[in-house]
Every structure is written in C-alpha cells, then in structure tokens.
C-alpha cells in the first residue's frame, strides 16, 4: 500500500530560475512522511514513529523542474525495507499526465533511511512489534542499490565554509532538522563556486547550474551553538555537462554529515543540459586536481 499526500507550493519555494529549489523538495518529503506516519500510526500510544525519528540517509534524484502554481503537487510514499532498528521509505513527486507513458510527470524520486530515537537519552532504539506491523502494511520491498565510492578527503581554504546554525534551524529536541543540512551544503557549494568563478557568476548569467542528485549521510546530530561548524567541499569529477561535488560537515575531526552532489549545467532557453564554456569548466578541473 502507498500513501498519497497533496503538497501545496509556496512562492518562496522558488529559486532564481523559477524552479522549486532543491532544498525545498526535502521539506516536501518531510511533510509527506509525517502525514503518512500520522495517518497510519500504531493504535498504541507506545508507537512514536512520528516525533521520535531521526534521518540516517537521504538519496534524492531530481528529474524535472517544478514551477509554481496554485494547485498542490502529489507525493506518493511507501516503505521499501524494515530492519530491527531502522526502515527505508521511498517517494515519488509527480503530476498526473496522460501524455506520459507512465501516466505521470515525475519531478523527483527519493529514499530516506530512518531510525527510531530516544531523544532523552540521545540513542537509537529498536522498532516495536506494533511499529513493524504498521510499516509492513506500507511495505513494497526493492533491491538494494550500490552506492558510489567516495573520493579521499582533501581540505583546502578554497573549499571551506563556516556553517553558522540559527536557532530556528533546530527542532524541539535541540537537533538541527534534516532539511537544514541541505541548506548548509547548498551554501557551501555556492561559496566554492563564487571563489572559482567570481562573486557575480550567478547574477551575471554566466552559468545556470541545477542539482541532479544529492545523497546525504547523517552521522552525528548538529546542535545549536554560537561557534560555527566547518563544511569542506571538494570536486570528485568534472564531466562534459556535469560536475560531482562531495562535502563533509565537521566539528573538528568529528564528521557530522557527508554528502555527494551531482550538478548539471543548464541552458535556460532550451531547458536542457549543456556544456559549460571553458572559463567555467577550467577552474573546476584545476581545483579538482588539488582535491
């Protein structure tokens, strides 16, 4: 069984291209996930799958740009795996479209690994039998997908970005919300590109870059504090029309989160991927050789 959620859009969700920003999609997934778990929550009060969860990993694949309109977009979500102390959810964000072979115009597909968490003791816990029974009703098992290996970490000042946590970033348990990590990673990427291409690279229209995929592993909770954390971003690969960036958010030597992001150069006129000019590609290649 799959759960369907009708997600409203907001004007503030858009980026400079008029598309829903890549970070906002993760907020949509969170809204759909909470709606599913509240709708199908176990009958017993002991089942705390709504408020007592932490995200372990997100894998997000962006397929088409979504633009603003006043009607909601449909999100379908379901469970693909249930383990002793975690479960995996899948999502599809789409509009019904009879002109598409599948009958759907799909904007995004994603998976999330979640674990029940005892916040008072700052530790994960096992799923209860009632919770497992509830999740089993939404279960559609899938084959596991191989993950690409990460490149070795090499830090440099060029790829450094201080992550300042705002009080509004944290949830009621004092942890930074999982969606905010995507914002931190986005800010770190933009800072790196500004150093490589100049501060006016976006406003001057020199390059349009869209996110094709983001995978994020959550290792240790980020907490609110006055001192910034450190984000390090480096380039793993430069392709013909794309670039792969990897990032870590750290507190000293402690890795709090890791991410891999695929960016695609985008022609706004044709709405298709395009090869960047040499003035943009060459700095990426040069920086990748130091990573």
Please specify the SSE layout and strand pairing:
Elements: E1 3-7, H1 22-39, E2 53-62, E3 73-82, E4 87-96, E5 104-118, E6 123-124, H2 129-136, E7 160-163, H3 178-197, E8 209-218, E9 229-238, E10 242-251, E11 254-267, E12 272-273, H4 278-288
Antiparallel strand pairs: 1-3, 2-5, 2-8, 3-4, 4-5, 5-6, 7-9, 8-11, 9-10, 10-11, 11-12
Helix pairs in contact: 1-3
Explain this structure.
- It contains four helices and twelve strands; from the N terminus they run E-H-E-E-E-E-E-H-E-H-E-E-E-E-E-H.
- Helices cover 20% and strands 35% of the residues.
- The model has no long low-confidence stretch (mean pLDDT 91).
- Helix 1 packs antiparallel against helix 3.
- Strands 1, 2, 3, 4, 5, 6, 7, 8, 9, 10, 11 and 12 form a twelve-stranded antiparallel beta sheet that branches.
Write a compact overview of the structure shown:
Keywords: Hydrolase. This protein is an alpha+beta fold. It is 20% helix and 35% strand.
Give the CA-CA distance, first to last residue: 45 Å
Q: Count every beta strand, where a strand is a DSSP E run of 2 or more residues.
A: 12
Supply the helix-strand structural class. alpha+beta
Which strand-content bin applies to the residues? Answer: 35-45%
What's the CATH first level of the largest domain?
A: Alpha Beta
Number of domains: 2
Q: Which superfamily, in CATH terms, is the homologous superfamily of the largest domain?
A: Hotdog Thioesterase
Q: How large is the radius of gyration?
A: 20 Å
| SSE arrangement, N to C | EHEEEEEHEHEEEEEH
Oligomer: single chain
How does CATH name the architecture of the largest domain? Answer: Roll
Uncertain runs are: none
């Amino acid at each position: 069984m799959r759960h369907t959620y009708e997600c409203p859009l907001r004007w503030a969700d858009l980026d400079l291209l008029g598309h829903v920003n890549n970070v906002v999609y993760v907020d949509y997934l969170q809204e759909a996930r909470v709606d599913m778990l509240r709708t199908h929550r176990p009958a017993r009060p002991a089942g705390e799958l709504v408020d007592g969860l932490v995200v372990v990993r997100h894998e997000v694949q962006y397929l088409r740009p979504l633009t603003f309109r006043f009607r909601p977009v449909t999100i379908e979500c379901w469970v693909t795996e249930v383990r002793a102390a975690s479960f995996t959810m899948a999502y599809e964000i789409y509009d019904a479209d009879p002109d598409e072979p599948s009958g759907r115009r799909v904007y995004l597909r994603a998976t999330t690994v979640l674990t029940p968490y005892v916040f008072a003791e700052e530790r994960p816990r096992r799923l209860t039998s009632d919770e497992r029974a509830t999740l089993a009703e939404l279960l559609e098992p899938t084959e596991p997908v191989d993950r690409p290996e990460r490149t070795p970490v090499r830090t440099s000042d060029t790829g450094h970005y201080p992550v300042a946590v705002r009080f509004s970033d944290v949830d009621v348990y004092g942890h930074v919300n999982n969606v905010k990590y995507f914002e931190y990673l986005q800010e770190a990427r933009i800072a790196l590109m500004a150093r490589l291409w100049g501060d006016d690279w976006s406003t001057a229209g020199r390059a349009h870059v869209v996110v094709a995929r983001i995978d994020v592993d959550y290792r240790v909770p980020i907490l609110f504090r006055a001192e910034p954390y450190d984000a390090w971003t480096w380039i793993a690969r430069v392709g013909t029309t794309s670039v792969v960036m990897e990032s870590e958010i750290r507190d000293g030597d402690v890795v709090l989160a890791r991410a891999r992001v695929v960016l695609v150069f985008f022609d706004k006129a044709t709405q298709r991927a395009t090869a960047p000019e040499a003035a943009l590609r060459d700095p990426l290649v040069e920086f990748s050789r130091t990573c």
